[in-house]
Design goal:
Blueprint (H helix, E strand, L loop, with lengths): L17 H10 L4 E7 L5 H10 L3 E10 L2 E8 L2 H17 L12 E5 L12 E5 L10 H4 L5 E3 L8 H15 L21 H7 L4 H12 L20 H19 L5 H16 L3 H16 L4 E4 L6 H6 L28 E5 L3 H12 L4 E9 L2 H12 L3 H9 L8 H13 L3 E13 L10 E2 L7 E2 L3 H6 L5 E6 H17 L9 H4 L2 H8 L12 H10 L4 H10 L2 H5 L2 H10 L9 H7 L9 H10 L5 H11 L6 H18 L3 H13 L7 H20 L1 H10 L7 H10 L3 E3 L11 E3 L2 E3 L10 H14 L5 H7 L4 H9 L10 H12 L30 H10 L31 E16 L2 E9 L5 E6 L1 H6 L7 E11 L2 E11 L25 E3 L9 H4 L7
Parallel strand pairs: 1-2, 4-5, 5-6, 8-13, 14-16, 17-22, 19-21
Antiparallel strand pairs: 2-3, 3-4, 7-8, 9-10, 10-13, 11-12, 15-16, 17-18, 17-20, 18-19, 20-21
Helix pairs in contact: 5-13, 8-9, 8-10, 13-14, 13-15, 17-29, 17-30, 19-29, 20-21, 21-29, 24-25, 25-26, 26-27, 27-28, 29-30, 30-31, 34-35
Amino acid sequence: MFLNCHSYHSLRYGTLSIDDLISQASSLGVKELVLTDINTVTGIYEFKKKCEQQGIKPMVGVEVRKNNTLLYISIAKEFIGLEEVNRMLTSANCDSLELPLQPKLPNNFIIYPLTNIPEILKENEFIGIREEELNLLIRPQYKKLIIKMVILHPITFSTKKEYNLHRILRAIDNNELLSKLPESEVCSKKEYFRPPQEILDAYRNYPQIIHNTNSLLSQCSFDFAFETPRNRKFYTGSKKDDLQLLTRLAFAGLERRYSRNHEAATKRVEKELKVIDELNFSGYFLITWDIVRYSNSMGFMHVGRGSGANSIVAFCLGITDICPLELDLYFERFLNENRKSPPDFDIDWSWQDRDIILDYIFNRYGKEYVAFCGTNVEFKYRSIIREVGKAFGLPKEELDELSKYPERVFRDDIVKQVQKYGKLLEKFPNQRSMHSCGIIISEEPLTNFTALEMPPKGFPIVQWDMHVAEEIGFEKFDILSQRGLGTINDTVRLLEEKRGITVNIKDTAISKDEEICNDFLSKGKTIGCFYIESPAMRGLLRRLKCDNYKVLVAASSIIRPGVAQSGMMREYIFRHNNPDKFEYFHPVFEQQLGETYGIMVYQEDVIKIALHYGGVSAADGDILRRAMSGKGRSLSALQKVKDDFFASCRKQGHPEALSTEIYRQIESFAGYSFCKAHSASYAVESYQSLYLKVYYPLEFMVSVINNMGGFYRTEVYVHEARMSGGKILNPCVNMSEQQTTIYGDEIYLGFMHLEKVESKLGMLIPEERKKNGAYRSLEDFIRRIPIGIETLQILIFIGAFRFTGVPKNELLLKARVLLGDFKPERRFETLFEEPVKEFKFPELKRNIFEDAFDEIEILSFPVSCTPFDLLQTKYRGTVMASELVNHHKKEVKMLAYLISRKHVPTKRGTMYFGTWIDVEGNYFDTAHFPDCLEKFPFQGGGCYLLLGIVEVDFHFPTITITKMAKMPFMADPRYAHDEEKRFETQERMKEDVSMTFRAPYPQEHEIGLPRKKA
């Protein structure tokens, strides 16, 4: 009789999870249950599985509302009924069609509230009567309708506290104070589970209503085959034709990548094709190939990564650029008969090209069949405190403090309520959004399984997430984007455009085997290069003296938290540098992990050790793989793997201490590791960007800047361009574009870096210049470009009119005289009807450093000089960064400019790693421990005097800081007569701060593994 149950997927309305809903029903002996969330089918598949586990018959439908007004409840007679509702909701969500007041849904039962009864009820339509409405049935207009009535006892909450939570959710949804929330926005206080007999007793005088309810329930079912694959089955139209096409393409690619006579490659292709055919994946491969083929036809770059790069067929089709034979990658990691869930390809495009690829997929495979996976955006405690606090009427100042110090105990009763309900809302779904990259391409119209929604991005989404997609038979295509590929693409294009140089960057042999690239790599000279530019990665490259592709592949995975968390990153560095000073933990480690010195580096390594040392089953190995990929959601399944591992180890006679340590390392990988093919894909892209940096550094750095960088802020990449021989110039209306551009060795910063200059204007300035020639003067510029006085002043301050030879002071006065209160859109009718009068301006002198302070104010960094030139002190330190490696264990004093700092948790408290440049422009790193930071904290961006002890760790020097102080700039000459503002501008200097919230990594002595066997 519970025909109308809401879960918390009724967003900002229901308070019960699917688990809570079912467990409460089960505890009351309920045997039939209907899930009808508001305008969504998000929870229906989870609901079905979990009901059946509890012996409850599941039925599903949708409560249809418009602007929170209940129109009706639809309950599917069978699965086809859901399809009807999905199509109706999709038309409203995606095509802006009105929800019908009396729908045509023949395979559904429709239940209307008393407030919305149509004039004529169809055979499948009923009226829901609540217990509190029974007294209305004495009225003649309702009495005659009893024959069409059913019991309506909605479920929305379970306790008084949850009812209050429901009211808070409604207040948040309506952006209303709790005290002013209308009753019409809130559910009845009776919408909770009560014993079925108690509800039947309330309706005992109306046996017809009870009969109607039972009859309706008996006619409904929810049959669904979870194991059936639902992706588009065939590319060509049949399995046979798909296999023929895939085979032809694979062998054509084999000839291109290897040669027809390459025996190992040929055998591997034949073996993979057999497995792909047996598992019905030919169509999946061909659809992916088709997307990549279109990308290539558009001249786009892509990177196929993830476990898909284990496949030689994918390599031959051009989906990936990783040779599995070169790196000994085994196909079974990607596709095998034991894998419970089929794999997916992860493919990256430039962030600039991805939407074009998406448009192709939607158009090629049909908008009815293609959609993004959805995702539930959950309430987060810090932000929900603001939402709950607003509902309770707390002022902004209190909300700021509450959000900043969430754990602080407050005495105020209202604040305590806010904290209590804020905590309850953690992990509640708040809104549906689009998965960042997961695309579904279905065999049947997607509305057969879900209603679709249209988020602001403009691509439809299904109403459930990737986990549900996988459970009901969909495998997603991951269409990702990144800035690294944009940088590579743009560099190649810039070289062609500016210098007529063609670089075939897709030929990875030119970068991977290049001697100078490997030298740069080993020295950590990788700023701007994809994935290998962070301070931590550059430090690792130097510690490993990484000078070849295979070591870089390992480094790409070692840097991940999984290996570092286990403490084995440090052990790997030691063994790499001292290959004769360690012994393997166990013979299995030497046999299986000889290439990585017996250290588990990749996901495959963990599975190898679990199988060959631990003796776990292939099925358990798959559970481990999913956990390491962040896909495993079952803690009980992982616990079973752990139990099986230790039981098997004891059976084999392995020492308990060694088994415990090995499992500790295995556990650290959960959700934080790469498979080897993924690392290899990243390493190829890293090499491609490094090759361009080595041979075409200026064009490369311009492209990094235009793709809005990577790990660092724009200033760092500008510095890197200058260190590579570039002359950095401020924006100029006659030379600059919206993006940064290059002429020979002269790099003109783009208008995009001027925060207060709109992008439309930044694009209009060069467009007008190309049409009608260079701007001749300030007056000419104003005549041709619609611009206000404030924006014009920004351009003058940054020096965009320096070609005129007129000082900034004079240009500013002239601009104010010419524009004044002038409105740009009226410039043709007023200002320039007559020739502009010539004005005589007083001669004003400027300090040589005024430009630098203008630049800091507008760009946040100086261009016309270095930060060191602006210091009051002339001292530049006793040691330069290039000499640090020779000062092991010695104290040094250095003057340096702060680039970035990384927050690192330790057992003793917070510490930071800093990255700096010295006056020569070279980078170095520092370590700041908690006790030092208490006395000598960071004080924002700028130059610091540093005192510390140098520690050289495997070729890489770090200074452990004992003292530091921020050094003051000279007084700002623009404010010579304003004491308050003379030192304000230097506070605009920036730094990059990266925060890390994780358990502290273990120290070497805490791992406790001897390097020599006893």
